[in-house]
Write a structure and sequence with these properties.
The chain is an alpha/beta fold. The protein has a single domain (about 5-190, about 225-275), classed as TIM Barrel, CATH 3.20.20.150. It is built from 12 helices and 12 strands. An 8-stranded parallel beta sheet has the order 8-5-4-3-2-1-12-9. Strands 6-7 form a two-stranded antiparallel sheet. A two-stranded antiparallel sheet has the order 10-11. Helix 2 (about 20-30) runs parallel beside helix 12 (about 260-275) and helix 3 (about 45-55) runs parallel beside helix 5 (about 75-85).
């Protein structure tokens, strides 16, 4: 098998990036990452972000842009990242009212069709990045599969987050294979979950209201550097190859094991180097 290029979702090191945008990109490149996925620009212009990626030899692979932000101004939101040169833009997360089983999930399906077509104008492919809440069943079918059946593959591709597929109760390697040809970017995320899912799961990813400390006390779930959790990483790589993926992107929403976010990112890429051959 050929080696995958490996990217880092910069949300993993968001505080470092906000404090020192250039220094963090430099550190990420020095670790051995080939590219980055943006989750905001920390006040930098598209031109500045592009120039720094070029300076440090990082491919601007993709960007996460909130669904509602894109729907408010599809051309404006998407064209900004087109200036950086990203090949993919992902719908990253849905607030509760837009999730499956809630009143606005239909708007996500229709909105993805609109956004996917706008992305195509800029030579970008729209992706959907799942969490575990898409693994509720509607008429016996996972909501995530309904989304992909309702929106054509040439309009919307997958960015399967392997952690959340696993937490949602499905086999992440099987899911990658299921969407062969539609899985250009795979999110590689490791975790531990000794018991049940915590009630305040999303407090742990830093984007939902909630008490993060209370969630951590439950000790039922925790993010880990790649290779330090329960994921069968070699199998995920094999599945990604079989599915025709172009990129593997590492994400760790919160640091763990007493390490800083940058230290966790380095632990992940150091492990990946041992299997990505």
């Amino acid at each position: 098998m050929n080696k995958f290029p490996i990217g880092l979702q910069l949300y993993s090191v968001r505080d470092d990036l906000a404090a020192d945008f250039e220094g963090t990109l430099k550190a990420v490149a020095e670790m051995g990452y080939d590219g980055v996925e943006f989750a905001g620009l920390c006040g930098k212009s598209a031109e500045e972000a592009k120039a720094l990626c070029e300076k440090y030899g990082l491919v601007p692979v993709s960007a996460h842009i909130p669904f509602t932000d894109m729907m408010q101004d599809p051309d404006g939101a998407i064209s900004e990242y087109a200036k950086i040169g990203v090949k993919y833009i992902a719908i990253p997360y849905l607030t509760e009212e837009y999730r499956p089983g809630h009143e606005k999930f239909g708007e996500v399906i229709e909105g993805a069709k609109i956004l996917g077509n706008v992305c195509k104008k800029y030579g970008i492919r729209l992706l959907y990045h799942n969490h575990d809440f898409e693994f509720v069943k509607i008429d016996g079918e996972y909501a995530l599969d309904i989304l992909y059946s309702e929106v054509p593959a040439d309009i919307l591709a997958t960015e399967l987050d392997t952690c959340w597929v696993n937490v949602g109760g499905a086999d992440p390697a099987a899911y990658i294979r299921k969407y062969s040809g539609r899985s250009p970017v795979v999110h590689l995320k490791d975790f531990v979950m000794p018991g049940k899912k915590p009630a305040k799961m999303y407090a742990l990813i830093g984007i939902d209201d909630g008490d993060q400390k209370d969630a951590e006390k439950e000790e039922a779930f925790g993010f880990r550097p790649v290779g330090y959790g329960v994921q069968n990483v070699p199998e995920l790589f094999s599945a990604s190859h079989e599915a025709g993926a172009d990129w593997i992107v590492v994400e760790q929403d919160m640091p763990s094991l007493g390490k800083t976010p940058l230290e966790c990112a380095k632990m992940s890429i150091d492990y990946i180097k041992t299997i990505n051959k």
